[in-house]
Design a protein that fits this description.
This protein is of the alpha/beta class. It has five helices and seven strands.
Length: about 140
């Protein structure tokens, strides 16, 4: 079985990326390891009093993201693909690489959308960082509006 790590950010194009990863998994008899990395600073805000931490904001956000991750996992499983998931907080690139190694991943599947810079517009800054630093092949799926 081929192990595929699929990072998701719940953005507008996540559904297309999941569909492409499922298609790939079916072609190679793969198992999908779904991961979402939440930022470490979810519960922090800045205001008149300076930086403040609101644990209830962080807790609610993490709960909502876990619900979304579970829905994606169930959608993948419904298509006869083995799947498990992880939600973790921290630096996305580092956590994805660590998770991929721990799961003996054969591929990391990423989308080609990005937000800034010429290269990043076509590939995406996280995808760019992973392709640069990963010893595991990164399969870049073109995602279109």
């Amino acid at each position: 079985m081929i192990n595929i790590v699929l990072p998701v950010d719940f953005g507008d194009r996540s559904e297309q990326l999941v569909d492409a990863a499922v298609k790939f998994a079916k072609q190679v008899n793969g198992k999908i390891f779904l991961i979402h990395v939440a930022p470490s600073d979810i519960g922090f805000a800045i205001g008149d009093m300076g930086f403040q931490y609101f644990p209830e904001v962080e807790e609610n956000e993490i709960k909502e993201e876990l619900v979304q991750l579970n829905k994606i996992e169930q959608r993948i499983i419904a298509q006869d693909i083995d799947c498990e998931h992880l939600l973790k907080q921290g630096i996305a690139k580092d956590i994805i690489l660590e998770y991929s190694q721990s799961k003996n991943a054969d591929f990391i599947v990423m989308g080609s959308h990005g937000r800034s810079g010429i290269y990043d517009v076509f590939v995406g800054s996280l995808t760019k960082g992973l392709t640069k630093d990963s010893s595991i092949p990164v399969l870049v799926i073109p995602i279109h509006d």
